[in-house]
């Protein structure tokens, strides 16, 4: 059961694994190995089984993930913090296998299924509240997720906006971070790009990026490399303070000795000027509390950035502003067509659930 080059386990549908799991379907395949939908004959339930490639790097990463998943089960025994529930891990023919609850499609697939038109604000709000439950607990336990992005947020059911955060393979404890090259580029925080040391605030940065993407359907900072990634951020928020830049080991890559951004043109010939666009222009959104929530997640300085605890108190989450008549300027009602997944039953079976 072993493919020499990649170290992948050769899966056959109907296979029995460790005398307990029967392979029903493929759910995902990546650099790490494969995720399979399986019947667990000990419980009679369907589970997701991640079979890790027989390669040292991926094995180590999967051990980190298994460790964090087990801790999450201790920290959140009632399964209230919207994180993937671990059930079992074992070795099968030299492959580490991790069994977890079975979930549905990821947020990227949801956004795509809606034709990249963006999700309705009520759905975004519901998903945000759940992400904040996860991020609050992680912060309380000093854990950084390190790879929050739409692909790592999964719907629990096809017709509800209930979600779970998955993929703790890059996670680490604050102060014990070993890697400098983390987070997926579009969701990568300035402190990681600039090399200034990082902590739980990097996940709040990713959250801000994800909220903008759920609203418009497209990544807010679609940098094709780190240079452009930073240029995308500056295009809206301008350059960072010199006091912050002083703490950045990689500042010379992006800024000259006067702290001026080095001129940069993307491969498509796009140049990006600092402060060229405003957040509300980019999002085409007039919902003040939503815009301010995103802006508070996307603060350059990690110390100024909103924490999960502060986020739970924000008007966008509490809805306070909506109940305060005539204090805010009249807002245009945002009408968006809901994604088919969340409204009407599908005409054909949905993938992954
Ligand atoms: P890579 O780093 O190559 O992206 P990964 O380590 O991030 O892989 P995961 O994110 O854990 O791997 O899983 C990859 C994909 O498999 C997910 O994006 C999701 O679509 C699917 N998947 C993972 N876990 C589950 C699950 N419990 N239920 C349903 N689908 C899942
Ligand atoms: Mg992933
Ligand atoms: Mg991963």
From TrEMBL:
Residues annotated as domain Protein kinase: 21-317
Residue sites binding ATP per the record: 50
Signal peptide: none
Transmembrane segments: none
Family of this protein: Belongs to the protein kinase superfamily. CMGC Ser/Thr protein kinase family. MNB/DYRK subfamily.
Name under which the protein is recorded: CMGC/DYRK/DYRK2 protein kinase Pom1
Lineage: Eukaryota, Fungi, Dikarya, Ascomycota, Taphrinomycotina
């Amino acid at each position: 059961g072993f493919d020499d080059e990649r170290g992948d386990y050769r899966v056959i549908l109907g296979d029995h694994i460790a005398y307990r799991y029967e392979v029903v379907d493929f759910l995902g395949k990546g650099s790490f190995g494969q995720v399979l939908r399986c019947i667990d004959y000990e419980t009679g339930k369907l589970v997701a089984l991640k079979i890790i490639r027989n390669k040292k790097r991926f094995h180590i990463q999967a051990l980190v993930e298994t460790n964090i998943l087990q801790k999450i089960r201790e920290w959140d025994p009632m399964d209230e913090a919207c994180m993937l529930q671990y059930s079992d891990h074992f070795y099968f023919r030299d492959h580490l296998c991790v069994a977890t609850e079975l979930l549905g499609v990821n947020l990227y697939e949801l956004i795509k299924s809606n034709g990249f038109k963006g999700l309705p604000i009520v759905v975004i709000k519901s998903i945000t509240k759940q992400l904040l439950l996860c991020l609050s607990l992680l912060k309380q336990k000093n854990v950084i997720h390190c790879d929050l992005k739409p692909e790592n947020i999964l719907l629990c059911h096809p017709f509800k906006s209930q979600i779970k955060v998955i993929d703790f393979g890059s996670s680490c404890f604050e102060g014990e971070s070993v890697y400098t090259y983390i987070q997926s580029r579009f969701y990568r925080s300035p402190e990681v790009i600039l090399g200034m040391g990082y902590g739980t605030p990097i996940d709040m940065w990713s959250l801000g990026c994800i909220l903008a993407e759920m609203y418009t359907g497209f990544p807010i900072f679609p940098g094709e490399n780190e240079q452009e990634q930073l240029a995308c951020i500056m295009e809206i928020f301008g350059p960072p303070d010199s006091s912050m830049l002083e703490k950045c080991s990689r500042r010379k890559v992006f800024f000259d000795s006067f702290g001026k951004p080095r001129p940069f043109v993307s491969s498509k010939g796009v140049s990006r000027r600092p402060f060229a666009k405003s957040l509300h222009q980019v999002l085409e959104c007039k919902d003040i509390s939503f815009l301010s929530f995103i802006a508070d997640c996307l603060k350059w300085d990690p110390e100024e950035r909103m924490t999960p605890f502060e986020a739970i108190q924000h008007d966008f989450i509490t809805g306070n502003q909506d109940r305060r008549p005539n204090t805010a300027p009249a807002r245009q009602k945002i009408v968006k067509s809901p994604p088919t997944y969340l409204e009407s039953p599908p005409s054909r079976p949905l993938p992954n659930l």
